[in-house]
Amino acid sequence: MSLVAHDEITGISSGPDFSRAVPEWFANEQRKAWSEFERLPAPSRMDQPWRFSNVKLLDLSSFKRSESVGQQTRTEILERSRALGEVAGRLVFAGEELIQREVFSEKLRQRGVIFQPLEQAMVEHSELFRKHFMAHPATLGSARFAALHKALVSSGTFLYVPRGVEIDLPIEIFHWLHGDNAAVFPHLLLVADELAKVTVIESFQSFDKEAPGFACGVNDLIAGPGAKITYVCAQTWGENVRALQINTTTVDHDGGAMSLNLHLGARYSRFESLSRMVGEGARSDLLAVSIADGEQEFDARTLQDHISPHTTSDLLYKNALDGRARSIFGGLIRVEPHAHFTDAYQKVRNLLLSDDAEADSMPGLEILADNVRCTHGATSGQINADELFYLRARGISVPVAQRLIVGGFLNEVVQRLDHQAIAGRLHDLIEHKFARNH
Amino acid sequence: MSTETKAVDIDRNKGDFSYDVAHTYDAGIGLTENTIHYISDVKEDPDWVREFRLKGLKTFLEKPMPTHWASKDLEAINFDKIRYYLSGGVQPKRSWEDVPEDVKRTFERLGIPEQERKFLAGVEAQFDSEAVYSNIKKAVGEQGVIFVGSTEGLKNHPEIFRKWFGKVIPIGDNKFSALNSAVFSGGSFIYVPPGVKVKHPLQAYFRINAENFGQFERTLIICDEGSELTYMEGCTAPKFNTATLHSAVVELVALKGAKIQYITVQNWSANVFNLVTKRGLAHEDAEVKWIDCNIGSRLTMKYPGVIMKGRKARGEVLSIALANDGQHQDTGAKMVHAADETTSNIISKSISIGTGRATYRGLVQVPKHLKNCKNNTECDALLINATSRTDTYPAITVRGTGNSVQHEASVSQVSAEQIFYMQQRGLTEAQAMSLSVNGFVNDLVRQFPMEYSVELKRLIELEMEGSVG
To answer: Can you give the pTM of this predicted structure?
Structure first.
């Protein structure tokens, strides 16, 4: 790709936009990030972190910044921005614009929960913001896109849960792409202080299913000592969207983070997930479900970084691939020196449903401590003929039987969440994708 | 650990140790076109071989070091200070008294015959295996088997070897295959006629004398339809090499229904960079099996591969790596499925001791529209000390609905309970550890020929000494 010279593109290539009010120090960081973005070379397939990836699809020259939405679109977006029945709070972004903010009970606010757009947080809570915002460099290949994100970050959420506060109901965040060739740069900065507990579900959607678009998002999830974070992402971008998502999760001692990423949309979707277990007893669960068809390409890169002893991580990624779709998994478990008593797991399973589907798996281990238990596995296969026969013998048609088997295959991942309402929502989205194809 | 390893890495500046250049061919130090012409002249290469070498040199100089994925340690190789060609018979002189006690003890423990010890220690230039070699050569020659060195093979039997030479591993496959293509000498060229099953394993060992174990040996084995061959190279005793770079190319061709088994036991001394390209081509119903055992060297990079070109071809890699202090064993396997119903199996076991690092790097490819291909990969790593390191980097590409691929890897430590149990029964910690490690590799070692497996077990015991406590 080439994010060519300035004048060739009117859109995102013009750099940071300071018409939005941001503090001077942040504006400076954005300028620095922009020159970093311009300095770093575009990814090439020869780079190990981009091996197998179709980097040609990352030509950003046609994309421009989002425009503001009209009243009718706004109403429609708001109507469609409902994922769960009961929630503790909701933010809805259309392009770069925050169009709705529904906040939870007064009680939570009194206890110090902060739930606001990023721009507000950098002014009102600059200390917390500066401590955690993109505090770790993107190490899985997308340093260039992380810099782009920082320079242009627009629709961001800051969520802070103070010590000991448990929010029972989930919090919903929606990001909408609308208009042709629009670009968005969504961000989530989630800090759960000591012993806090929170669940967030983020939805990425396109208003117009066929409009080309570009999304470059970054998430920072920070679980303090003993804190529990559950994060769910439902990615259903339109079929012509190119998307990059760079997530960093940091878990302190006895804390836990569970994340589930559902990838259904986009022409090309790259997902980088760095999990850092920095305190003893930290645990991170990394789950993902992808269903790809047509020409879709899903590229997932993960690093489970065990920095402290007595930490656990468990990764389970499942892909169902139809049409000419392609999935790439590049994962690494890294056990740093002295991170003894690590328990780390990594499992990737690909179900190939057509002759042109392709799965590339690169499950990796780097172990620098000896008292550890680490295993990984990767499998690629197809629907078991016996299972299909069994269902057909009971009068179930082949397409339905296939759907049931694929559903069952993917369900194992969703079940791990142990959250009925969210599982229900994810099943609906999966069903919807199947229904479209058959 | 480990006095053993340190001892192997003897100080080569001491003692009466020099090259005797008076009456030998020596291409000098460094690599230019003149070096290539010199080698070709000495070997009286046919013109096409000379051109092949020159092309190899050009490719070698053009290709960058693969350090974007491989160990940065490669940068420590100084290509200008290497002797690329020394003719047979030239060996460093050293007296038996100079050989360190530890090494002598190692030979003792391994039960190496007196005569071989001297050769291995670099004391004697010649190991008298000529008799064995000519007997074997005669025996297999009666069956029509051609078993010669690379120079002789290309010169005297071009009608057989030219067709496949440089075809399984092209010059430009990687930087080091290009280097080998430029300066190769030594190695074995073998042709087995249709239907011939060679009873005894052929060994590179037999040919030590005929042409010295080169730094840049080139081996090409062709098994014609329905024939079978087992080939062994290396030996389990530590081998002292004054050359710091060893870069071989081994090509195997198994025609329809043929079976080749290639066994390597690599135990170079701890200053050697061992960068080897090995690949087999399996036609219909043929089988290529690599048994690869890496114990020595400073850095080994070796990923034996099989291209399964014909229907029902089979490929297998069994690999054991032992990385001790200061060593990096970067080994693995490549399996390319290029026809229906092909099956491949990779089993890799590695043990990291002290600051040793063992890496598994693998590639499995099942391209378009193939049916009923199967791959199974298992990698197990054992870490002995807190400073030991192990990595696994597989890459698996699967297309279509007719195939199944599975990869599994695990990393573990010797169980404290097992050690405790054995200690209770009167074993020392070291004995218990070594027993555990031998148990870990046992199911692989059992597949080795008898004499190799016995020596290998003893060697593991030796390497394990002093690694605990």
So the answer is: 0.85
